[in-house]
Amino acid sequence: MSIDESAIKALPYPVSPADEAELAAFVGESHARATPMCIAGGGTRVQPGSVEAEHMVTTRNMSGIVTYEPGALTLIARAGTPLQEVEDVLAEEGQTLAFEPMDHREILGSIGTPTVGGMVSANVSGPRRIQAGACRDHLLGVRFVDGRGRTIKNGGRVMKNVTGLDLGKLLCGSYGTLGVLTEVALKTLPLAETEKSLRIAGVTPREALEVFVAALATSFEVSGAAFHAGTAWLRVEGFEAQVDYRVGRLKELLFDREIDVVAHAASRSVWRDLRNVKHLAASEHAIWRILVKPTDAPDVMEALDQLGGEASVDWGGGLVWFSGAAPSVAVRRAVGAGRAILLRCGSLPAADLFPAENSAVAQISAALRKTFDPAGIFNPGLMGN
Amino acid sequence: MPTIAMPEPDLGILARASQIIERLTAVVSAEAVISDPQETRAYECDALAAYRCPPLAVVLPRNTEEVSAAMKVCHEMGVPVIPRGAGTSLAGGALPTADSVVIGIMRLRDILEIDTANRFVRVQTGVTNLSVSAELEASGFFYAPDPSSQLACTIAGNIAMNSGGAHCLKYGVTTNNLMGLRMVMASGEVVDLGGPLLGSGGLDILGVLCGSEGQLGIVTEATLRILPKPEGARPILIGFDSAETAGECVARIIRSGLLPVAIEYMDDVCLRAVDAFANAGYPKCAAVLIVEVEGSEDEVLYQIERIRQVAEELKPVEFRTSRNADESLAIWKGRKSAFGAMGRLGDYLCLDGTVPVSKLPSTLKRIGELSKDYGLEVANVFHAGDGNMHPLILFNANAPGELERAEAFGADILRLCVDVGGCLTGEHGVGIEKRDLMTKQYSADDLAIQMEIKSVFDPDWLLNSTKVFPLEASKPYRDKAVRG
Amino acid sequence: MQTKFSEAQLADPATKRSNEILRSCVHCGFCTATCPTYKVLGDELDSPRGRIYLIKDMLENNRKPDEKTVMHIDRCLSCLSCMTTCPSGVHYMHLVDHARAYIERNYKRRWDERALRWLLSKILPYPDRFRFALLGAKLVRSFRKFVPDARLRAMLEMVPDRIPPASRNDRPQWFLAEGQRIKRVALLTGCAQRALNTDINDATIRLLRRHGCEVVIPEGIGCCGALTHHMGKTDDSHAMAAANIRAIVAELDGKGLDAVVINTSGCGTTVKDYAHMFRNDPLAANAGRVAALAKDISEMIADIGLRDASHAEPLRVAYHAACSLQHGQQIRSAPKDLLKAAGFQVVEPRDSHICCGSAGTYNLLQPAVSAELKTRKVATLEATQPQVISAGNIGCMMQIGSATGIPVVHTVELLDWATGGPMPQPLAEKPELSV
Question: N- or C-end of chain B: fewer Cβ atoms within 10 A?
Answer without folding.
Answer: N
